[in-house]
# Entry
Amino acid sequence: MLFDRKREAFFSVQLYIEPGEGVPAFLAAGGTLHVAALSAIRTWWPMGIVPFRAAPTFFDRLRRHRVPDVERPIQQFATLLPHAESWFKGRTGSRFIVDGRLAVRRPA
# Structure
């Protein structure tokens, strides 16, 4: 759980495929780790990942509804679980997932 400068709580979800030998052995040997981040809304280049937050949305604030909705980010995350599952199964991307590879170099 993280907090922004207004002290509103938000969270982000990161996905990665752990190598069979485990992460410590992977880091020691060097290699490539498949990583991804799940976004609360569709991502468009060059915009980044949007975290899941309980703060009122822009439209809620326009309607002067300022009460945080704690259930909304959890529901958003639950509806995106099929996207995460398909990424784990076949690295299929979607507009809600930004993925890449993290190369670890062997220590000299």
